Amino acid sequence: MGRITLDKVRKAFGDVEVIPPLDLTIEEGEFVVFVGPSGCGKSTLLRLIAGLEDVSSGEIRIDGQNATDLPPAKRRLAMVFQSYALYPHMTVRKNIAFPLKMAGLDQAAQDKKVEGAASVLNLTDYLERRPGQLSGGQRQRVAIGRAIVREPAAFLFDEPLSNLDAALRVGMRMEISELHERLKTTMIYVTHDQVEAMTMADKIVVLRAGNIEQVGSPLELYRAPRNVFVAGFIGSPK
Ligand code: ADP
Ligand code: MG
């Protein structure tokens, strides 16, 4: 589960083509990072995959199924936003359980899944607190917990650490990488931070003005950047 294919996916806002027709395959279980300068279309591409934006043309397939016209809730993808989007008046337990409650699970089933996610994320001792009583990193984990309980085919992260200070960012990077090791679920991670891309990715997709400049492992991009833009962007010695 979690194979995502983009076939000539294109996006224009009015007359402005933000994503020219683009092909990309993300394999099951891969940790893929979209990296590129601000405004290059990373968030738009992620939102197209999530179904939060409609494609102008082209096709998106998830596990072989044409998902192009499916609403976000039917795509089995979980988006983790940079703003935590937690409910301040609800406990951590209720925040994480929210999608399960919406899906109509009974209380016992909700508790089981929430406690499983909390254990994976080291949040067991914080379940009865409210978001205001947590650190930035803990809040980020709650947001991830809310995604985990839905057992998605893939997690989509849009610069999830940009609100955190530098020290915390390093810790959270490792936590997300560990989470990927444990869950082995496909993850697509958007960042403008080359270090994040190089340290976290199985596969990096370098974007410039909506075009894919190069796709490869961190080592491939480092050793053989296709052009000066990629070399400059990932800090390779070309
Ligand atoms: P990134 O996430 O890489 O910083 P975005 O995907 O947010 O880039 O934006 C890519 C381009 O698309 C930018 O020029 C941005 O202004 C434009 N854009 C994004 N969303 C919209 C929108 N809803 N309407 C018009 N233009 C948009
Ligand atoms: Mg963005």
Description:
The model has no long low-confidence stretch (mean pLDDT 93). This protein starts with a strand and ends with a helix. It has 8 helices and 10 strands. The chain is 36% helix and 26% strand. The chain has helices at residues 42-50, 92-102, 107-120, 136-148, 166-183, 194-200, 218-223, 228-234, and strands spanning 4-13, 16-26, 31-35, 57-62, 65-66, 77-80, 154-158, 186-191, 203-208, 211-216. A 6-stranded mixed β-sheet has the order 6-7-8-3-9-10, sandwiched between helices. The protein has a 4-stranded antiparallel β-sheet with strand order 2-1-4-5, with helices on one face. The protein is an alpha/beta fold and 238 residues long. The structure holds adenosine-5'-diphosphate and magnesium ion. The site of adenosine-5'-diphosphate (ADP) has 10 residues, from helix 1. Residues 42-43 line the site of magnesium ion. Belongs to the ABC transporter superfamily. One of its GO terms (molecular function) is ATP binding. It comes from Poseidonocella pacifica.
Keywords:
binds magnesium ion; binds adenosine-5'-diphosphate; 238 residues; 8 helices; alpha/beta
Number of helices: 8
**Could you tell me the radius of gyration in angstroms?**
18 Å
How much of the sequence lies in strands comes to: 25-35%
Strand order of the largest sheet: 6-7-8-3-9-10
Which structural class fits the helix and strand makeup? alpha/beta
Question: Uncertain spans, ≥5 residues at pLDDT below 50?
Answer: none
Separation of termini? 37 Å
- How much helical structure, as a percent, in the residues? 25-40%
Organism: Poseidonocella pacifica
Keywords: ATP-binding, Nucleotide-binding, Transport
Protein name: Sorbitol ABC transporter ATP-binding protein /mannitol ABC transporter ATP-binding protein
Family: Belongs to the ABC transporter superfamily.
